[in-house]
C-alpha cells in the first residue's frame, strides 16, 4: 500500500493530501530511510513521522484497504512519541 494511503486509512494523518505533503517534504522515514508519498509500506515497517515539534514512531502491524475509525488503531503500534524542546 502507498505510504500516503496507509497514513490516511490508519488515521495517523487525517487527509491523504496532507500525508503526501509531509512525505514529500522529507519528514517521514520508512525503516530509517527518507520516504516519498508513493513509497510502498508493508507489515513490519517502522515509520518515523515528524509533525513540527512532535515525532511519532510506529510499527505497521497490518494493512487494510478500508477500515472503520474504531479499527484504524489496530493497523499500527506506537513505538515512541516524543516532543522537541522549544528552545531553538
UniProtKB/TrEMBL annotation:
UniProt KW keywords: Protein biosynthesis, RNA-binding, rRNA-binding, Stress response, tRNA-binding
Domain RNA-binding S4: 1-61
Signal peptide: none
Gene encoding the protein: hslR
Matches recorded under Gene3D superfamilies: RNA-binding S4 domain (3.10.290.10)
Pfam families, per database record: S4
Subunit record text: Associates with stalled 50S ribosomal subunits. Binds to RqcH, 23S rRNA and the P-site tRNA. Does not require RqcH for association with 50S subunits.
Residues passing through the membrane, by range: none
Protein name: RQC P-site tRNA stabilizing factor
